[in-house]
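Researcher: Next entry in the queue.
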Amino acid sequence: MSDNKKTFAIFGNPVEHSKSPQMQNAGLKKLNYNGIYKKHHLEDGNNIKQVFLDENYQGANITVPHKEFAFKNADEVRGIAKKIHAVNTYINENGKVIAYNTDAPGFLKAIESFGEVKNVLLLGAGGTAKAIALALQEKDIEVTVLNRSEEKLKFFKNENITSYSWKNFKPKKYDLVVNSTSAGLKDEYLPCDKEILEPILKEALYAFDCVYGKITPFLALARENNCEIKDGEDMLLYQGVLAFEYFTNTKADEKIIETMRKGLKGQ
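Model: Structure for this entry, 267 residues:
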């Protein structure tokens, strides 16, 4: 029966740095699931649905910069993804492409380790920021979006989420500051000017960076200002666990979750 091996993938550009395969494959192996998960470098996001079907993938994750393309190309979008207009998970349901966003619930699970959070400043306005902002809003947590330029803020304004560009920002006190930009991923940049950021971090309790596996300049600055810090590992883990549950049609228990965490860490 080994011929019936199911294939899963992660689409991205770039994708070589992704740790999703080692996490997902660890989970598949632990479950004794006849499947393999691999990387798929995709240049043009407009082709995502076609490539997904042509490759006969049973499921896929979607990372930067294809989440909005994946949303537009899906046959059916379910859950909070309908509002986010960005998806990170595809499922092949009898030849139909069904799309979900597991970033939103994954983020909420990741910040559970912090204390009570009532007020969040979210840096960036891309697909991940949309997921986080709407997830927080659904939980009645006040969220403010801050982005370099004005044009990407329309989405948030339409959802009645307070949003500012750097030019017109009016800061207040926030419990949690989140970096959803790629600043610090492959460089030593902060997600916004230190003059803006430092006074806010001085007042904040917690800082979260969606970048994982390193202390970014943002997290380093937050730590200097006595914030409790956390990188994106748990968000990546939990969004991956939720996607895994869709892929395998199972509920992941603690053993599977811990195996996937070890996979993510390359252990």
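Model: The longest strand covers residues 6-12.
Researcher: Noted, moving on.
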